[in-house]
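Hi R.,

Here's the input for the FE2/S2 (inorganic) cluster complex you asked about:
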Amino acid sequence: MHNSVLNDLKNLASKDLTNATAMPKELYSSNEILNLEEDLIFSKEWICVGRENEIPEVGDYFTFELGKQPLIVLRDKNKNIKVLSNICLHRMMKIVDGKGNKKNFTCPYHAWTYNLDGNLVKAKYMDKTECFEKKHLKLPELKTEIFLGWIYVTLNQNPESLSENLKSLETMVTPYKMENYINIISEEHEWSTNWKILTENFMEGYHLPVAHQGTIGPYFNVMDTEFDSKGSYDFFTYQTFTKNEDAIVGTAHPSNKSLTGKWRHTSILPTIFPSHMFSLAPDHLWYLSLQPNGTDKVKIKFGAAIAPEVLEAQDNPEVFLEETKRILYEVQNEDRFVVEGICKGVNSPLGSPGPLSWLERENHEFTQYIAKKLTN
Ligand code: FES
Ligand SMILES: [Fe+2]
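And here is the predicted structure with FE2/S2 (inorganic) cluster in place:
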């Protein structure tokens, strides 16, 4: 079946935006397509696992599942980020859950113990085992890159350079100094939708005045949306929009000296393919990093962070944080409502993909990215 779907997808990707529709619904509902995505995208591309400043101190760690591979993301003795397989070298038990700070990781099954480099340092009652040599046992380490404070990993042994691919994006976002933004939320969720439906939802501003009318919708002037006009869209795409200079959120604090002119009230929303997206404003950011879990479930790492000068200026930071979180959760719920609704649509017999607006330009670029990965 998937050959004809892939032909339809290729055909759609070759059209310009004025003749583009949403992707064929089998792209969201078919297990064959999901298997292709897992093999050709999620096992090969760079995936964001979170922010570097979630683990600032030596021994800080959090866990993450990349596809079916449990990982430990940690800060090693040299203060570098290291990402290790979270599977014990004895009988393959998962070693650790959650987050925290440790000098060593001890497997809960028979207490084999690993240091922050992943070397096995302790294993009792193995002295009579001829094929056991402690010094040769080390947890596999994944390739890792840091991009402006984001931690990326890949299962690919020979990946392209992430920083090389994101160079032009880096030039634009560097003045925001987002790597210094202070984390206020870092959570994992699972919603009942296809991962691409949530990606596409994040990419377009068309829905903001409608689906978010109860929260952030009224602050956006959709006519102000600008796109990446020179991009190749192989690795990322983005849009920018401005806020009124007197808007209460989304503008630079007076003590922010690195952003100038219109950038003081401009937000950038990049999507770094396949599934890391963030909304970066001069005073805060929030982000999603997604992975499929079946055709109709998406695993979400969701986080938010605040520019340090904004947090410092609060008379009552607790109330400020509570209110900021409340709004973000409300926005999330508004998005959850639509993306779970669309998931019903793509699985329904009478659902069919309709034409896109010029405001959904990035959705078509995403279609082109997916087509390229699945049909090359
Ligand atoms: S499985 Fe980890 S110590 Fe046995
Ligand atoms: Fe939204």
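One thing worth noting: The longest strand covers residues 182-191.

Cheers,
M.
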